[in-house]
């Protein structure tokens, strides 16, 4: 369902498993940081709300969305994680760069999901313009970081 039809921050808290005792990695792209740092804020707040301890959240920053999979893999190799959440924002521009980056990152994260025994969460906004990104980073359509955290909590319980 399109996020324009559903708020990314709205979910049934009773259907989210506890994160108590679990350890999460979050990799955040610094490109479009006015957007991605809002995703991070929503993500961390949601993990803590569901019982994850502050010191069980490991955050790594990378220059852009393309670098998310590499850092996610390195984070997994340096910590015993329950899940890795990857947060980024690639806004469509005048070229097809967004298609190449988004496809590459999605495929790389899918491969990491297969390679490792933990879930890697695709928390990347793929909007057509900056306003759509802002709307999904705490704006009228909620916060994709919240949705990514809920997904990580659910997937780490499988």
What features would you describe in this structure?
The protein has 158 residues and is α/β, with parallel strands linked by helices. The chain has a single domain (43-156), classed as Lumazine/riboflavin synthase (Rossmann fold), CATH 3.40.50. Helices cover 42% and strands 19% of the residues. It has helices at 33-49, 68-78, 97-115, 130-135, 144-156, and strands at residues 24-29, 57-62, 83-89, 120-125, 137-139, 142-143. The longest helix has 19 residues, at 97-115. The protein is globular and about 45 Å long.
Any chance you could write out the topology, listing elements then pairs?
Layout: E1 24-29, H1 33-49, E2 57-62, H2 68-78, E3 83-89, H3 97-115, E4 120-125, H4 130-135, E5 137-139, E6 142-143, H5 144-156
Parallel strand pairs: 1-2, 1-3, 3-4
Antiparallel strand pairs: 5-6
Helix pairs in contact: 1-5
